[in-house]
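Example record

One chain of 100 residues, shown exactly as stored in the release files.
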Amino acid sequence: MITLGPKVEAGGEESVFHKKLKIRLKEKGKEGRTVFLKDYLDYLLKNNKTIPPDFPAFVREIMGLDERGGFIHIRIWHAGSELVEFAAKMNYEYKIEHYG
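Predicted structure tokens for this chain:
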């Protein structure tokens, strides 16, 4: 899974709790996950971002995720995650929740 390391919070402490990034797919099912991955790879390339070394594992994970109300749930460390930036720039509907 692509998760960026713990972020140092304003108070100087690291956040040790994952957050849940919920992204609504633009299409349902396997096709929606494929479109999501194409969009993410396009985003990385067009914005001159480094393709993460665990990208193949990320692809397998995304393809295996269940849709819950049209959303897929991805673990992230913080709201400044590159995946959050991607979702916003590519006009995906998303929300961030804390695991609880």
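Notes: The longest strand covers residues 19-24.
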